[in-house]
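Incident log, structure service

09:12 report received: a user says their structure output differs between two submissions of the same chain.
09:20 pulled the input from the user's history:
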Amino acid sequence: MLPLVHHPGYSIDWPERHPFPMAKFGVLRRHLAALGFDDRDDVHWITPSPATSQALLRAHTADYLQRFALGEITTARRSPSGFPWSPELVARTLLEVGGTLAAVEAALTHGLALNTAGGTHHAYADRASGYCLLNDLAVAARHLLVEHGLVRVLIVDCDVHQGDGTASLFRHEPRVITLSIHGEANFPFDKRESDRDVALPSGTEDEPYLATLATELEAAFERVQPQFVLFDAGADVHTGDRLGHFDLTTRGLYRREHHVLSRCLARGIPVAGVIGGGYDRDLDTLAERHAQLFLAALSLTE
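09:34 re-ran on a clean worker, output below:
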């Protein structure tokens, strides 16, 4: 059984030509349906509930959550969040975090689950950053510590941009270990220290990337002996991404997703995946890239 989490509220009305492709979540869902995911008995779709204040307060300050909910944050395009605030934006952000929490719960039962959104790793405890308002990975990791008593949670962040918010949130938390494989010359330019940072040069292609991933992942498994893995499968490493500056192919994306998921399953480690970044104005092309995570997962459940 492959649990997949989606909510139609992940996509909301959005300013035309805004750099963030808000409609991609709905397009990805339709793309997966066209690929036959809805016709399979071994795929189970989950509709998430919004994240609760209790869950959010484990990663974010009460002051920031109040300002976010009430719109008392800077909302211009060039603000830290990059988003125009609205009540609808608050609602969809809570659903996105709730979706990652639902994926975590499903993965604990089934070994593997995926959210069709998530990966908002730039958000800090007290502020938004880089198109990230709330840090779903951090909320999910704290949930695993508090609700399930885990003591070794590994975040494998393969988005092309370093997960600076996540690194900051867990800098004094030895139970959550952060591994970030990202572009050395890409956003955020003021990086934070993860437990393990691997910065690769612009133009990195499939083979050197995948070789680095294999080495770093096995080293992390040996060092951490994780009880759970949160996997940020950012598609912005693709050669066609507007903001990525790496040169991975679509086949390379599939191989990356398959490697991470298969190595977790081979070791008996539950893993929850989120789609992370991906920036292309051709949403069908972007959905195809994000879909590689789901195709790789499906191949491992057959």
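09:41 both user submissions now match this output. Likely a transient worker issue. Closing.
09:42 reviewer note: The chain has a mean pLDDT of 95. The longest strand covers residues 176-183.
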